[in-house]
Amino acid sequence: MAIIGADARMHAMVSDPNLPLVRRLEAVGFRAWPASSVVFDGSWQVRLTGGHPGKRLNCVVPLDPSDSRDIALRIEKAGKRFEAHGRPLLVRQTPLSPRPLIDFLASDGWECFEEVVTMTADLGRMTFPDTLDHLPTQDVGRYVDADIAVHGSDPGLKAALAEILGNIKPASGLFVIEDAVKGALAAALCVQDNDLAGIMSLAVRPDHRRQGLGIEILSSALRWARMRGARTAWLQVVADNTEAMTLYTKMGFEEAYRYAYWRKASA
């Protein structure tokens, strides 16, 4: 069994006392960060995006703990689909994943990596710090340039990121903090889906961290969502990103559930 880069308890993470919340957050997450191609194999969602390599956009996501038939055959079928798209096959494990599937992956030479924490916060109880309030920009190109700059992403992904943003159906707020000389310092994407507001992306330029810009832009995004009627905020953060976890906890976020990815281990 290969469980690498994630706590061993992820192997047993196939049930959760609040599965209705997990199902709802998974559903709004799919709408807030849409893949260009989505097909279903039973209750397994197969997500592929040719123009963008993001893991959330290119993975198999099981959505029913009881759907564990023909695992080997379905994994093989998914693998061929991913290969045709030039993508490595990834399986995203959430509390909705069937235990027999996780057992199969662990025994078949797969490895578990990148544990991610999904967090929620009650916007009605949230008190925002006294920081500058920023309004969302309507200029998608400006936001895309800022997002790529602060993340240090490949500029070649600009068109793909713009396409993803254009495919988001719920209301989305694009937030940017800029300096007239230095350019983009921080960027955040908030997607409001009825009473839920998801922070889908938030980053501060490395040389401007620990200066309050993270709280400033997050507060602006959450204020915007609350004014539009959102009551609960949610986000996802890699478990070992202690700086971000500290920021979100300080803002009132609490852990709801965790997920991780599985990939075939290298020979």
The chain-level mean pLDDT equals 92
Number of helices: 7
C-alpha termini separation: 14 Å
Helix percentage: 25-40%
Largest sheet: 8 strands, mixed
* Fourth-tier CATH superfamily name of the largest domain: Gcn5-related N-acetyltransferase (GNAT)
InterPro entries: Acyl_CoA_acyltransferase (IPR016181), Bact_Acetyltransf (IPR050832), GNAT_dom (IPR000182), Rv0428c-like_C (IPR056935)
GO molecular function, one term: acyltransferase activity, transferring groups other than amino-acyl groups
Keywords: Acyltransferase, Transferase
Protein name: Acetyltransferase
Entry keywords:
267 residues, alpha+beta, Aminopeptidase, 2 domains, eight-stranded mixed β-sheet, three-stranded antiparallel β-sheet, 7 helices, 11 strands, 31% helix, globular, disordered N terminus, Acyl_CoA_acyltransferase, transferase, Bact_Acetyltransf
What this model shows, in words?
- By secondary structure, this protein is of the alpha+beta class.
- The protein has two domains: 2-116 and 259-264, no CATH class; 127-251, Gcn5-related N-acetyltransferase (GNAT) (Aminopeptidase), CATH 3.40.630.30.
- It has seven helices and eleven strands.
- The strands form two sheets. Strands 1, 5, 6, 7, 8, 9, 10 and 11 form an eight-stranded mixed sheet that branches.
- The longest helix has 15 residues, at 213-227.
- Mean pLDDT is 92; it is low at 1-12.
- Keywords: Acyltransferase, Transferase.
